[in-house]
Amino acid sequence: MDFLTDGKLVISGAAGMIGSNMAQTALMMRLSSNVCLYDPIAAPLEGVAEEMYHCGFDDAQITFTSDIKTALQGAQYIVSSGGAARGPGMTREDLLKGNAEIAAQFGKDIRTFCPNVKHVVVIFNPADITGLITLLYSGLRPSQVTTLAALDSTRLQSELGKYFKIMRNKITNCRTYGGHGEQMAVFASTASVNGRPLTDLIGTPELPDAEWKKIQEKVIQGGKNIINLRGRSSFQSPSYLSLEMLRAVMGGEPFRWPVGAYVDDRRFSNIMMATETELTPDGVALREVKGTAEEQKDLELSYGHLCALRDEVIKMGIIPEPSQWRTLNPNL
Amino acid sequence: MDFLTDGKLVISGAAGMIGSNMAQTALMMRLSSNVCLYDPIAAPLEGVAEEMYHCGFDDAQITFTSDIKTALQGAQYIVSSGGAARGPGMTREDLLKGNAEIAAQFGKDIRTFCPNVKHVVVIFNPADITGLITLLYSGLRPSQVTTLAALDSTRLQSELGKYFKIMRNKITNCRTYGGHGEQMAVFASTASVNGRPLTDLIGTPELPDAEWKKIQEKVIQGGKNIINLRGRSSFQSPSYLSLEMLRAVMGGEPFRWPVGAYVDDRRFSNIMMATETELTPDGVALREVKGTAEEQKDLELSYGHLCALRDEVIKMGIIPEPSQWRTLNPNL
Predict the structure, then answer these.
(1) Neighbours of B297 (CB within 10 A)
(2) What does the buried/exposed string (b/e) look like for A208-237 if buried means 16 or more CB atoms within 10 Å of the residue's CB?
(3) Strand B8-12 to B34-38 pairing
(4) Nearest to B47 among A29, A52, A226 (CB)
(5) How close, in Å, is residue A155 to chain B by CA atoms?
(6) Which residue ranges make up each domain of chain A?
(7) Taking the CB of residue B105, how many other CB atoms lie within 10 A of it?
(8) Is the torsion defined by CA of B13, B231, B152, B293 positive or negative?
(9) Which chain B residues contact residue A175 at CB under 8 A?
(10) With 90 as the cut, is the pLDDT of residue B113 above it?
């Protein structure tokens, strides 16, 4: 099986749990014959590269470096899990500020070292915000920067599968949009269970309202649940899904889930959020979000939460006011 | 892409680093549409299953259980990384005894709950010994039980690739046989570098003897090097390669590396060790180990080391003397 591309794929944060899984996943998916692993932490990074050599992935060029210039030069695709984790004593704001600054530098580095990159997927938290900051500073087109936003939708599929005790592939077109966590908008009207619209089941004995509320809550708490169960943040699913996104951008199988993308229309402006999209070799293209009036209201609420988070970062001085964005990135 | 089989694949030790990687790898390789994750530690196991659901692997039945009977019933393929890790204050002998006892129980459980299993791959350390014990107690045929023994060969390929600064797929047919670690027999005469026999290069300016010695040492220390670099044992490469073994047994791509298999001929008897084999849906078949007189002597030395390790386990009372083995397992 051939590689999808010979273009250089850079995995940033490759020494971490997500990043090291991405290295293996990218090679197993046969995404690129040229994979560069980057991480500032040199020794574990080398350990990950060694593991990849020991797998016998012998027809791919697998390099590793802790020098960002070496990593990014010639990059055609980048996926970055390279944020900081929340340390002891750190507030949510500390984490936000830290990762926002990392994203700003990451964007600047892209502009300096690989302005001709084709696509960048950003997955470190809060991804809607770090993705937006990366887009602003990189100078790339909005179609070239996406964030991982699929996990909430796959969690909805998973919880519905458990509730109805049927195979997950009988639960189709699950969608959550907007932000992540408490702020997400969980849509019901897009999904079907065994061919029947989910909205026909909610509020009936098959899925009483209270049970549907519980499912929504489980979706929202899906990440926290993994931490409780495993004693560590999820790393396999974010790794896997973000590379499925890149696979679609490289011309492989279409991506089936919502994507975090830059939205700037009459309804939502100057924001990156989970939305309906199509990922192709031309990048991400926005598609209409369909839903009931109530769902659309939820989405607007979620958008409001994201704007507040974005405005925090503006107040921190990490990005300017939206009115200044086009000066920073003329492609917006 | 279809699954290779609908037969039940059991991943034992699925809550661990290797096991959880195996879950994802098996699903990505499309090995089986029926994957059962087993681990005595229930909460992290559930966390791994959740991660697999959140990946969107939605056309496979993915179950999890901490009940060994539920796990093994109906199993057609098993891969087990379910050994204990070396804890603080534990001697090498403690670890050997602990994992030997786990292997004995594992073999008995197979005999009780899934005597019709097709193939079992054992990868917890020391795998040559735990695999042998599993074979003895399971009552399976020698063709049905194999152990992971490829890592040393892929490490040889990797080190030669680094030394000669060429792509690893230009380094072909790397082989180490016999035991693992200090006891392995690193063969040179099987390998080629860019089409030239490695033995033609050793002892020349292209690869002076001292450099070849260094390479052999790096191969032997390959696992320890990962621990030094990453602060944890290798888990991605053992996971990946053991599932490549199962893929071959399921009728997929042939396996390219040595395999740990039961050997009992005129030269080597009553032992499991890395040897030349072919993995097919009929299981593992032994093939001739070719090498120079000196390499064959190294292999005999390595065999001697393994026999000593096996005899330790006999003295511990975990397995009987070889003369009694046929009573325990008439298929030997």
Answers:
(1) 12
(2) eeeebeebbebbbebbebbeebbeeebbbb
(3) parallel
(4) A226
(5) 5
(6) 8-149
(7) 14
(8) negative
(9) none
(10) yes
- N-to-C CA span, chain A: 38
The residue behind tokens 């735990």 is B130
CA angle B143–B169–A248, rounded 5-degree value: 95
The pLDDT confidence band at residue B22, using thresholds 50, 70 and 90, is very high
Which chain A residues are Cβ-neighbours of B51 within 8 angstroms? 226, 230, 234-237
What's the average model confidence in pLDDT over A95-107? 96
Pairwise CB contact (< 8 Å): B52 & A154? no
* Cα B330 from chain centroid (whole Å): 24
**B54, B232, B245, B253: which to substitute to probe chain A, counting the most A Cβ within 10 Å?**
B54
- Quick one: which of B147, B185, B172, B177 has its CA closest to B284? B147
**Nearest CB partner across the interface for A54, out of B25, B58, B155:** B155
Q: Do B154 and A54 touch (CB under 8 A)?
A: yes
What is the token pair recorded at B328?
């325990």
Q: Which CATH number fits domain A8-149: 3.90.550.10, 3.90.1300.10, 1.10.520.10, 3.40.50.720?
A: 3.40.50.720
Whole-structure pTM value: 0.97
Instruction: Note the CATH number of domain B8-148.
Output: 3.40.50.720
Cα B304 to Cα B301: distance, rounded to the nearest angstrom? 5
* DSSP per-residue codes, B230-290: HSS---HHHHHHHHHHHHHHTTSSPP-S-EEEEE-SSSS-SEEEEE-EEEETTEEEE----
Q: Does B59 contact A28 at a Cβ distance shorter than 8 Å?
A: no
* Mean pLDDT, all residues of chain A: 96
* pLDDT of A183: 84
What is the DSSP annotation of B25-38? HHHHTT-BSEEEEE
On chain B, the residues whose CB falls within 8 A of the CB of A59 are 167-169
Structure tokens given for B28: 């990505």
What was the pLDDT predicted at A180? 85
User: What is the structure's pLDDT at B90?
Assistant: 78
User: Measured at the alpha carbon of residue A254, what is the angle toward residues A249 and A255, in degrees to the nearest 5?
Assistant: 85
- What residues in A contact B53, CB-CB < 8 Å? 154-155, 157-158, 161, 168
- Contacting residues of A for B19, CB less than 8 Å apart: none
Structure tokens at B31: 């090995």
Q: Can you tell me the ipTM of this complex?
A: 0.97
Confidence at residue A287, expressed as pLDDT on a 0 to 100 scale? 97
- For residue A126, whether the previous peptide bond is cis, meaning omega lies within 30 degrees of 0, is yes
Given a contact cutoff of 8 angstroms between Cβ atoms, the answer to whether A104 and A133 are in contact is: yes
Instruction: State the DSSP H helix or E strand holding residue B212, giving kind and residue range, or none if neither.
Output: helix B209-220
Q: Quick one: average pLDDT of A294-321? A: 96
Token duo for residue B186? 């690193």
Surface-to-core class of residue B270, CB atoms within 10 Å of its CB (0-12 exposed, 13-18 middle, 19+ buried): middle
How many residues make up chain B in this entry? 332
- pLDDT tens digits for A8-58? 999 999 999 999 999 999 999 999 999 999 999 999 999 999 999 999 999
